[in-house]
Amino acid sequence: MCAIAGVFDLYHQADIDPVLLQRMTDIQRHRGPDQSGMHREAGVGLGHRRLSIIDLAGGQQPLFNEDYTVAVVYNGEIYNFQALMRELQQFGHIFRTHCDTEVIVHAWEQWGTRCVERFRGMFAFALWDRKQRSLFLARDRLGVKPLHYAMLDNGHLLFASEIKALLAHDQLRRDLDPLAIEDYFAYGYIPEPRTVFKQIRKLEPGHSLLLRHGSAPAQPRPYWDVSFTPHHVISPAQAADELIERLREAVRIRLVAEVPLGAFLSGGVDSSAVVAMMAQESAAPVNTCSIAFDDAQFDESSYAHLVAERYATRHHIQRVQQHDAALIDRLAGLYDEPFADSSALPTYRVCQLARQRVTVALSGDGGDENLAGYRRYRWHLHEERLRSLLPLGLRKPLFGALGALYPKADWAPRPLRAKSTLQALARESVAAYFHGISIMKDEMRTQLFSPALKRDLGQYHAVEALRRHAAACPARDPLSTIQYLDLKTYLPGDILTKVDRASMAHGLEVRVPLLDHTLVEWISGLPPALKLHGGVGKYLFKRALAPYLPDNLLHRQKMGFSVPLADWFRSPLASRLQRSLSSQILADSAMFNMDYVQQLFQQHQTGRRDHSAPLWSLLMFEAFLRQWQESPEQYAERQAA
Questions:
Q1: Cβ 107 vs Cβ 93: under 8 Å
Q2: Which of 57, 253, 323, 326 has the largest count of CB atoms under 10 Å?
Q3: pTM
Q4: Does residue 321 register a pLDDT over 90?
Q5: Domain range for residue 620?
Q6: pLDDT (tens digit, 9 = 90+) per residue, 386-414?
Q7: Active-site residue, from 2, 99, 115, 473
């Protein structure tokens, strides 16, 4: 895996500062510790850091075509590169290496901007065409690999794998975006294309951006979407068999590497399925890595051990201790913007463990979104059935009033915590789903935000991030709609971001078979009843995996990859949390009602309310603010160190 960075001058052909370009590149050294490369010519500069996986002797970047008129810097893996190489050779293209990177420059020459439609894999790249005086940026379909860009006032476009590289430029404005802050405290992350900085954007998954010298900046364009096109009549048994074969093939093509390879094994269905397929495709025992917790409610290591024993893997376990919260500042530096998924802690540790033994690891990410594994999907469909019984005009006042009167009971069993359900029934479908997934509900954010921040927000509400995608959703059934929303927001913004930054911090490449786009397209066309059936998520997947995994693993209650944050905040982390929530930096930001911040803390300490998610989001935001206040020079020096 790699890091890319660069500068493109849209209006002039001035030299790009080599010191700046080197700094933007080297600040991402963790993503590519093996080699560094740079190319500059009038009006453009490309930088690259390499983690060598395929064609270790060749494949240095920037990489050029035969006459050195096209250059690319690239982060990712194109798994069908050998087939594309053969096809391009038939058109007369000459290859000097055996790596997938060279396929990109020749595919550009052959197919232009449509080259991305031919690539199967995970990628983010920038391609410079000297003849056309153009720069082409592209990101893979599901957003496995990141790409950020910023348009400066002087006409320079900056791009990089991580935000920290852009922040090294002293002409980049570092103003925070209040809309992104609203998004963050609603979702726990900032959905594409927004970032916490007004001037920086994420290139959305499945999008490309073509810029030409002398022309005004263009807008990103989509080249792919999940279709949800229904299959022809197919029996459940046939679907199960085909699902296994498609998964097996997606795993097989991800086993190509010239370095040690392994897998994450959480003990859940998805990672266990990937390991089962790997074991059948590998001649040698699979290297597997797991995380364990002292708290049995969060510990899946015994299930991981079952799979490891069944497939005779070389299994390694690391226990996450409570003092791991010392990683808070490290995580804030890794993610470059506020990021409130606390499972980033164990993810960081499992990546660290894996890197001690392998350079490439396969993961099971994407199965919940593809195959309807989240429990919230079941709750949403149940609520949808109730919503269908009454029109919104009647539901809104009736259930709105009941939701306001019903007491909040975080301590009670789920069926008795009816306040959230009543509030959801008073809303339309997308707003109800937003209400269910928000880490801080509307009323909490209203109390948390200062009058100044509310003025800056105007009429903006975080639900708009979902509504934008819902309007473009090709599916009409309720389950497919919310799966589509998660594939567009939660998957790239939270899950894949978490894994990318944690793995790249250790120079580890993570491959994601369940997010092979051909597999995602095929699964999307399955009937919703084969995904969520009789209250059972991943129904077809579990049926298909019956010959490969034990029943007590397939049919146990979903646990999720999380940490015992609520308890940590009441004992070992209480003092650290209180220091952060009382910090002058948080108060001086003038964004928050500090009395309400302390109220959240006190209510959590009594044990009657579980505010662990809102408190963690505030903790991580405070850590981000401390780093944001550094000068570009201080930031660059600390990141380089």
A1: no
A2: 253
A3: 0.93
A4: no
A5: 565-640
A6: 777 666 555 556 555 555 655 665 545 55
A7: 2
